[in-house]
């Protein structure tokens, strides 16, 4: 490939006082040490989409929402995704589900990895997110980061930093290695398919 991979780091919650900025900044700091990919934040605060309620499914017509179309164009520009996801009521946030409902082919045949936080490290939200992304033809990766309540309380109330928990750094490096490997492999596959279709 002639250019670097582009990986989005997607913030899944928009509420004031969200915890998501802490793991996002930490992941970006680790990612900045790499030379094999570029990482960019996609903050759902920047895309205040209406609830998805278009008359026609996206398979038949693009969404009527201009901001949702901008979001879809932005997401289409990446080779892979890291979702920083909170856990709300054993699942993902409503704003993230709504954002994903505004996408159709933009994520197709691309990899996704996860940084979950909350009860049991956001694991239940991550599992729900894997199911949603499977329907969108996304390759979800096994290595993930799970920030549990012990770590969150230490960070929010006791002045600790994520770097005070070495197991999180270890998990993050494995996740970053995998998202880049799969991002490269699937980008090559998409390019090969596009060339074959033009032949």
Describe, in plain words, how this protein is organized in 3D:
- This protein has 199 residues and is an alpha/beta fold.
- The protein has one domain: Flavodoxin domain (Rossmann fold).
- It has 6 helices and 5 strands.
- It has a 5-stranded parallel sheet, with helices on both faces.
- The two termini are 19 Å apart.
- The model has no long low-confidence stretch (mean pLDDT 96).
Protein topology:
Layout: E1 5-11, H1 21-31, E2 37-43, H2 66-76, E3 80-86, H3 94-101, E4 111-117, H4 123-135, E5 139-147, H5 149-157, H6 166-198
Main β-sheet description = 5 strands, parallel
Indicate the radius of gyration in whole angstroms: 17 Å
**How many strands in all?**
5
Unreliable segments of 5+ consecutive residues = none
Strand order of the largest sheet: 2-1-3-4-5
The name CATH uses for the topology is: Rossmann fold
